Structures are given as C-alpha cells and as structure tokens.
Amino acid sequence: MQQNVTQKIIARHLAAGEMVPGQEIALRIDQTLTQDSTGTMAYLQFEAMGIDRVRTRRSVAYIDHNTLQAGFENADDHKYIQTVAHKHGIYCSKPGNGICHQVHLERFGVPGWTLLGSDSHTPTCGGIGMLAIGAGGLDVAVAMGGGAYYLPMPKVVGVTLTGARPPGVAAKDIILEVLRRLSVKGGVGKVIEYMGPGVATLSVPERATITNMCAELGATSSIFPSDEVTCAFLRAQGREADFSPLEADAGCTYDEALTIDLDALEPLAACPHMPDNVATLAEVGPIRVDQVCIGSCTNASYLDMMRTAVILRGRTVHPHVSLVIAPGSKQVLTMLAENGALADMIDAGARILEAACGFCIGMGQAPCSNAVSVRTINRNFYARSGTESAQVYLASCETAAATALTGVLTDPRTLDVDLAVAMPERFVINDNLIIPPATDGGGEVVRGPNIKPFPVNVELPNLVRGEVLLKMEDNITTDHIMPSNAKLLPFRSNVPYLAEYCLTPVDQEFPARAKASGGGFLVAGHNYGQGSSREHAALAPLQLGIRGVVAKSFARIHQANLLNSGILPLTFVDEADYDRIGQGDALVLAHARSQIAGGDTLILRNDTADFEFPAKLALSPRLRDIVLAGGLLNHTRLSSAGGEGMGNSI
C-alpha cells in the first residue's frame, strides 16, 4: 500500500491502534525536548513517577525562555533543570546555547524519528523529516519514562508547492498564505505535509519556518520529506550519519489537498491580533512602525540572520524605529560574529539580544504605548508583547529589516538588495554549552524555594456541580488563561502563585471568585485554549477548583492538558445551548462516573435556568479511565512504570 511521509513514520512507530483517521493510536517516542518554561513542571512530574532514568533514544532539556534573571527564581529553576537532567539521563542545553527548536534542528533531530516536546512549536523539526509533536509537560514526562504517546490518528493534508519564490518572498510568506487559507483552527486533527517541485527550492531552515507555524494552524504536526537538501544540511552540521531518505510513495493519497503557486506569492503580514489575519503588504499599506523585532524559533536561523544583515549593511535604522535582533542559537551568533554580519547589524543601529526566546514570549522588549511592532515571531495575540495597546504584525525577516530602515511597513522587493545568501558547506560546531548526563545516574538534585508542589486532582466524584465562574468568547488563548509575561514567567514552578493571575486578562476578579465559590465550571466559545502548550493553563484552573470546561470546541494540546489534570473538557452538542447559559448559573453533572463510562454524550443540568443539555466527551476507553482516576498522573501511578497504560493526549 502506498503511503505518504506521515503514514510511513507512524507505521514504523505504531505501538497500538489502527491507522484510521480519528481512531486512537499509540506512538513510540524516540526523542523528547523540554524548555525551562514548561520543563521544571515536567521534571517534577517525571520524578513523581519514580523512574530512575529516561527510556528514550535522546531527551534534551533546554533553557531558553526564562533567561531574564531579575531575581533568584529563574536561576533556581535553571539549577534544578540542569541537576535533574544530569541525574536522570537527559542532555541539558544551558542558557545562551539557543532556542530549543533551532538547536534541536541543528544538533539532534533525525529524519524518520518521532519527537515529543513540551512546547507547541516542536513541529519545527518536521523541516528535516521528523514527526515532531507538541504536548503538555506531563505527556512528555510519560514519554521519557518509556510510555507511548496516544492521539487520534490524524488526517494528512497534502500541500503541493509549485514554482519558485520571487526574490524578496520568504518561507514565512508561504506559511502565512497557508494560515490565510486554513485559519487558526483549520489544522486541528491534521498533519500538514509538503510536497511538489517547490520543496526542492527550500533550504532546511526555510522548511523549519513553515513547519514551526503549523502550531498556529492548530495542527498536530507538519513535515517535509527528507531529501538531498536534508542530507546537505546534516552534512554541514557534521551529522551526515543521521540522514536517511524519506519521501511519499508515488500514488499515495491524502485526506485533503492544497496547492500553492510560489511564483504568484508576494510578501504578506499577519495583522493584529491573530496569526490568520493575513493580508498582502500592499493591502496593509505603508503604516508607520515604531519597533521591529527579528528572531524567534520561527525566524532566527543563519539564513534569516544573513539576509537581515545584507539588507542592513551600510544603512541606518530609521530614527523613530527601535530594532532588536536575537539570533536563534550560539552556532548562528558565532558565525555572524566570524563573518562580519554581526558588525553590519550593530553598525546599522540594531540592538543585539542573546540567543533566546525573548520578545516572542513577552520576555522583555515590550513596545511603547500605542506602538506598531513588526515581528518575525509566530504569534501576535492581544497583549502578548507586554503592551496592551500595541499592534503587532507578523512578517518575514526580509520585510522586517526593510521596514526598520524606512520606518513604515515596506515590501523588501522595493530595495536594491541581492538576497541570494548561500547555505554554508560547514557550520561552526561547538557543543560546549550542552551538558551530557551522568553515566552513573548519580548526583544531587537542587531545588530552590520557589519550586512548589503542583496540584494533583482526586478521583472523579459521581456528582460534579458548581457555578459557571466565567463565560468567554471564541479564540481564548493560553495567554488569556495563564498569562506568561516577564513578571509571571519566573513562577512557572509555583502554581499556587500563578493561580492568582489565572484568566485575569479576561476578568480581573476571576481568581477571587473561583476561590470564594470553591471552584466550578468555565464556559467558552470555539478554539478554547489555542496557542502555547503550557499545561499551567490547566494546572492553575485545577488549583482554583475548576471541575470542567464547556466549550464549542477546544485546541488540541489544551484539551489534552485538561484531561491530564482531570478537568472535564466538554463540548456543546447544540451550540445554541451556549447562549442559554449565563455566568453565575449552577451546573450539575449527576451520575458523572456512570455517564462517562457509558458513552460519549453526557447530560448536564442548569439548575439556575431549569433545563438540561447534552455535552460531548468523546474518549477512548483508556482516556475514560484517566478521567475517572482524576488525571494522567493518578492513572500512571496505577500502571507499571513504562507499561502500555502510560501516556495520553488528544
């Protein structure tokens, strides 16, 4: 039977289930990655499982998010991560080595392997032909312990790329075009697989830019074939032995299809405040810009930085623009320093930041009030930049650099610049900031005072009742649910503290109301929980006693994180019932255990408005067991370490 690339990797890693779209499957995981924003919690959960050493082929802990050390909290988390990794067989990438996705692509990713990461942009490594999936930290902890990763078999969307991009049109414009066509929820339950003659025109870093932003589509993953371009990249990284060819069989089929003519593509921008609010630069117009930020796991590769330097060389940043640049890794920064490109950026007036996530996650570089900020990042959610009144546009490095020079949103094709930058035949390789684990499994794990116990649910009671504590609209993000600004990021290992800020961007009074009520329910519209993989968006509500969320639809990773925490993610059968429920209404789920064990449709009662309504909780038998146990950790404790009962996701 002919198979596409996605199906080939799944077939090789299938631990349970059948490859029928929508049916639950289990995958063996080759590699895992964490970052420090989610990693502390993941390793606390791993320790709670009582497993001495990771059972993957390779697990890597990255420190790239919470690098602003304004107090002891972040530094303590870094120490904990490095020591717990050293003890349990995990490689640790220290602060300054770079962004997890960029470094993993450079130094660890292997075509044809599976990668599970506690970061929604883990699919970046699909650029070298990995099946790379973002998940919650507890899912990754289970995978590190040898457990399979469970998910519904995804549909595969075949995106055919034809032609070749004109000069000035970037890989970022390709994924923005896909977002324009499919929307931020158009990839749910799907893997986006690229093919066609246009693929050969894209370097590995450019492919990685495209797979990176499948997270903004809500997709499970995204992937390119592993071909001669992949081989050349791995050879340049001194890792040619990791290469293996992988392409779709002739005559294979896809569940959906999309074609993009690269010849006809032009520079695009995602307008505030959503990544799928895409328009051409001509449609947006030459708006005045106050800030330009170039970097992030989407656009901070060697090619991105070199094209930025070529545009800036011999020129000066516009007087009213603040330009900041963050290379994606130490490798990239070193090469820029050695070839003079870094000097070109500095001479033009750019501020050079460390190789870290930084402004992409709101860790510094908040723009001024009412600013327009053009950024090469992947998300422009409201207030994510740190300034509520700011307007953030997403664009390519070429567009961003051109804009920094002119002071208005600028099509890079209007500049007289040759952007034909070649990939290096050999990258600079110095892994001295990657710390290998102890070979004897020894060493002390150091825990600072900011690391607090995380909440664990109890077995699901047979009667679940509570007040509707908050009613929300469509597209509530994890930034809404658990804000992640520079002031709160240091407390990622302190859930009780974070819970005081849960959902405050929606309603400042929510935490106090939830505590006064002893918990309850949330009600939301479509795509609830889109954005980051942060399981804190489930742990903080759990800390506040949230028992269930009733929504029109959920984002994949957040739905899995709710299940992991034992919070019921319920979906309206009739969306009209959303309008019949008000904030403050009392909801009751009677005979909860027997209802969940008995089928996918549950009956809830609104005691306040005096009516019953159905809600869906479509779960496999093992997910029902997880919910009844009060979450994945409770369920895992009942399973043998590394046994087939371990693992969860949606």
Notable features of this structure?
alpha/beta, 650 residues, 27 strands, 22 helices
Q: Total strand count, please?
A: 27
Residue share in helix = 25-40%
Q: What general outline do the C-alpha atoms trace?
A: globular
For the biggest β-sheet, the strand order reads 21-22-23-24-27-26-25
The end-to-end distance, rounded to whole angstroms, is 27 Å
Radius of gyration: 23 Å
Mean pLDDT metric: 94
- The parts where pLDDT drops under 50 for at least 5 residues are 640-650
The main pleated sheet reads as: 7 strands, mixed, barrel
What structural class do the secondary elements suggest? Answer: alpha/beta
* Total number of helices: 22
* Quaternary organisation of the protein chains: single chain
Short structural summary:
This protein has 650 residues and is of the alpha/beta class. The protein has 22 helices and 27 strands.
